[in-house]
Structure formats: structure tokens, C-alpha cells
């Protein structure tokens, strides 16, 4: 993995930056973009289901568009997104009954998206085709051995670069089920194995050291699959056929978290995020903010699909308390840890984020890169092999920070800068397009009542 210093050489490649002028707090209502994890899964399950799947409120962002392009390359008919709706005609058939996927005549590009590459490996491995997939420089540094190994045991033939890195070349077909215990709690690994198992012969069971997000299990059941599951495990008998469905995707709690934390750290703030996903395996961040002293109000809406959703309002207290985040909690807020580290800067006492070495294998090394950039803004942060230590409250002057090409870092740094004393610049913010197009404008609307500004412009 590249060091923070190595990655610095790519700083020049950033094409956009965000200028942040701090102010008095954030106020208002923000509609966050549709959930990224759910958009990937709805499209992928639709691709192997019988009939037509309609995905409403599909996330139109680079990561999920990469998934649609990969599915098209495999011969799946995909229309849209048009006004947020995607229509997919499924190509079931790896169990011999239908056409299945076509063999693509070009290399599939998963872009920056780990979810695309890992889930697609499991989705397509049961189909008797040869295909090659890769991604951008960040994705080509991320470990793929964790999906290669179980899929090979199931019968797929997979070649990769040394260290199990993409590009991957996969020859699939006629897989058998597997009982697999993962060494890290990863929804992507679990999902890849379940998607392959669904189209393989026999029992597939995945056990993980702690419960990870359960979207695949819920969505499989919604598409008509029979599976059994409990805390940290799921199993199914293959092969099974899915039936196309209409899915409405709620707002993404991982995107909302940037507003929730901004509200929590800026006294006098109040932010409401309507129609956001409330899956318990995704909203641990709200429990942490509550523990830290923020006022959190959750109003669930009537359920209308595989996932709970509702309105969330966060109000900032006059002071936050330090928190320790570790153990089984970590997979339930893995993508929110960068912005929770920003919350910790504003909390009284010493906060620790531990058992989170997985952060080093995301779009950037989210431990070293975040610590480095927070220091650029004037904050003091300690790193551990498996996390971060932060003593607060700290209020930095401000400065210039870089995203490392990582959307979550870019947005977390904007939130950190909003609570600074002087204006700051976050460089390399074009990566935000992978999950949250329009982030700067949305944050700017909330910031203006407190005379703060968040403005994106070309670098
Ligand atoms: O399954 C998913 O949709 C995701 C799972 C998580 O990754 P891991 O499975 O690698 O923990 C998360 O970090 C990622 O943003 C999305
Ligand atoms: C880790 C993330 O996504 P992915 O693994 O799909 O690249 C993320 O969105 O923070």
C-alpha cells in the first residue's frame, strides 16, 4: 500500500477544490442522495432475476454508474438512470435454465468502487464466461484475495496480480456451495459469496467475526430467495431463481453522517435529513453521536421495501463528550469513522477509534491519510495500527488539506474545516462524485444561515 507521502505526488491531479469559510452552525433540511450499497445490490440482483426490475431513487453517482456499465458489458439490458429510475431486464441462467451473462469483449472497469468489483466477482463467477475486470489506481491497490479465495474454492478460476490485486481475470461456471468463515467482518466479501452461492449447487454458508451490514440478505429475501440468517451468519441452498421487483432506495446514512456530525460539532445547529435509511447495521453513528451528547431524533416511516427508512434530526449540544469506538461496533459504522474522528476533535476528553485496521484498505489508507490531513488543518491526532486517538476539544485555525482521492476523506475534511477559526481549502474534491454529487452545494445551503460558506470550484 502506498504511504501518505507517496500518495502526495498525485495531489496535482485534483481538478476541483472546496473553499470553506467557517461560521456559526448549520441549520435546515437536507435530502441526501440514495443509498450507494442498496443501489449496487438492487441493480445486481435485478441482473440475475427473472423478468424486469425497477429501481427507483437509484444513486446516480460514479460508483453505482460503474456497476451499471459492468452489467451492460455482461449483456444485461439496463435503461437509465432517468430521473433516478433504472430498469433492468434480468439474465438468469447460470443454473442452466436461461441465457445467463454474455462474455464481454472488453475489460470491465469498476472505477473507484470496491463494492462493484467484489460483488460482481461473486455475481458473475457462476456464469460460464471469461471476463477481466479492473479499476482505478486506488481500487487496484485494494485486497481482492478475500473474494478470490472463496470463489476459487467454489470452482471459479481467477488470476490476479501478485498480492491478489486487480486486474482480475475470471473463468466461471458450474460452482459448488461453500461454508466459509471470513477473517474480517466485510459485507462485500459476505455478499460476493452469497451471490455466487445463490447460483451454485448445494449449501453456501458465510460466518463472520462480527455482523456487517445486511443489505444483501434483506434484498435477496425481497427478490424471493430463501435464506436463513442470524447474528454474524447467513446461509442458503443453491441454485435459486430470483424474481424481478420494484425497489425504492432510501437516502444514504453514510452521506447524511456528514450533516449529522456538522450539526453535532457546531453549537446552535439543527439539521433534518428526511427519508434516510434506518437499517440498524448502518446507523450506529447516530448512537455514537448520542453518546457524545448530541440530540438525535429518529422518526421511522412506514416500511415499504426491504429496508427501514425515516427522518433523522440532529441538534448540536454546547459541548460533546469523548467516546471509545471499538470491537463489534466498528463494522456498523466503518464508513462514518473519518467524520466521527472529526466529531472527536470537538469532544472533551480523549477519544479512541480502535479495531479499525480495515480503514487502511479503503479508497485511501483512512488512518494515516486522515491524520496527515487533519494535521495540515492544525489539529493534533495520534495514530495506531488499528485506529486513531484524539484529545479534545480542539479548534484549529484552518489551512489546506488534500482528499487523497477519497470521497469520505474529502467530505470529512470539509466538516473539520467548517469548525475552524479561519477559511480553509480542501483539494482534490472531484472524488466526491463517487457517492455524493452536489455535496458542497447541499452543505452550503445548511451553512449559510450561520454565515458559513462551502463552495466548490475548479482547481
Ligand atoms: O457492502 C457494501 O456495500 C460496503 C461494505 C463496506 O466495505 P467492506 O465490506 O470492505 O467492509 C463499506 O466500507 C463499503 O463502503 C460498502
Ligand atoms: C469504502 C467505500 O466504498 P467501496 O468499498 O465500494 O469503494 C466507501 O464508500 O466508503
From TrEMBL:
Q: Which residues bind phosphoenolpyruvate?
A: 36, 114, 142, 188, 366, 408
Q: Does the keyword Methyltransferase feature in the UniProt annotation?
A: no
Record InterPro entries = Enolpyruvate_Tfrase_dom, Enolpyruvate_Tfrase_sf, EPSP_synthase, EPSP_synthase_CS, RNA3'P_cycl/enolpyr_Trfase_a/b
Organism equals Carboxydichorda subterranea
- Tell me, in a sentence or two, what this protein's role is: Catalyzes the transfer of the enolpyruvyl moiety of phosphoenolpyruvate (PEP) to the 5-hydroxyl of shikimate-3-phosphate (S3P) to produce enolpyruvyl shikimate-3-phosphate and inorganic phosphate.
Q: What is this protein called?
A: 3-phosphoshikimate 1-carboxyvinyltransferase
Top EC group: transferase
Keyword list, A-Z? Amino-acid biosynthesis, Aromatic amino acid biosynthesis, Cytoplasm, Transferase
Task: Cite the source lineage.
Answer: Bacteria, Bacillati, Bacillota, Limnochordia, Limnochordales
